[in-house]
């Protein structure tokens, strides 16, 4: 007999019970999927992605005006970066909305991986921008020139830093609350953008007020390198979800400990976990006494699921009760953790 209780992945409304007293402090699990009910996670990610798109539009408009006045390669690089931020923000805007759709008869596991594909699009855009900026910076290194309206340009970059910092604070809060992959990728863009803005200010100042005319172009090179690094970081986040990487060991230990809080469960094995957008999926087998009735085994499974649902309200949980003296394990052997690969 296999039990499964999930307020998100079934037609029955389920209100999670209060967290058990032995559950680790909430801040220890911040930034992980599954810790909020799906509709609450969706509400947060919808708002933060809309905010991101608005900030992107403002930055693009301001930087485009300043670039036309100054001709700075640094401003151009920052403008291109902000343009990518907007495209990435739009990608996240639609991805979190699609990923939040409830599971149905066609997508039984939900659509959470849409966030991972959004992150892949962001990686492609980042790499394209890095290559473009390297080309522009190389031309400027060969043909350096004085910048016009440098004070205007610096003031614009300071404004960009202020508004980007405001967005990053909001995005960090959203990630701590939801663990959203799409928002993490979007924030990586804006962290790089803010760093680029700081570097551009330094480059413009050096080019305008010192004999070092190539400083602005070299800043463009540095930003390009930073973009490649950002692509790697976002790619790592996307890869972990798209190939169903296990949750971190601390999460798996918490899940096992929650199951073993019931003394009638003598063992837990073959724990499998994965994240998918705002959801987590948990499977395991638990060892029970051989002489338990089916009804008693069912009650134990339900209680274990409720403990896990209290810690992971957006979880899809599947628990298989197993007689502890039985040497036969269910399923394909290659997926068992004790299998010799």
TrEMBL record:
Assigned keywords, A-Z: Cell membrane, Membrane, Transmembrane, Transmembrane helix, Transport
Main subcellular location of this protein, as a coarse class: membrane
Pfam families per UniProt: Cation_efflux, ZT_dimer
Span list, region Disordered: 1-34
Biological process according to GO: intracellular zinc ion homeostasis
Residues that span the membrane, as ranges: 48-67, 73-96, 117-139, 151-169, 190-209, 215-232
Cation efflux protein transmembrane domain location: 52-235
Entry-linked InterPro entries: Cation_efflux (IPR002524), Cation_efflux_CTD (IPR027470), Cation_efflux_CTD_sf (IPR036837), Cation_efflux_TM (IPR058533), Cation_efflux_TMD_sf (IPR027469), CDF_Transporter (IPR050291)
SUPFAM superfamilies xrefs: Cation efflux protein cytoplasmic domain-like, Cation efflux protein transmembrane domain-like
MF terms in GO: cadmium ion transmembrane transporter activity; ferrous iron transmembrane transporter activity; zinc efflux antiporter activity
Subcellular localization: Membrane
GO cellular component: plasma membrane
Domain Cation efflux protein cytoplasmic intervals: 247-323
Record field: compositional bias (Basic and acidic residues): 25-34
UniProt keyword Membrane, yes or no: yes
Membrane topology: Multi-pass membrane protein
Family matches, as NCBIfam families: CDF
Entry's family note: Belongs to the cation diffusion facilitator (CDF) transporter (TC 2.A.4) family.
The protein's name in its UniProt record: Cation transporter
Organism of provenance: Hellea balneolensis
Lineage: Bacteria, Pseudomonadati, Pseudomonadota, Alphaproteobacteria, Maricaulales
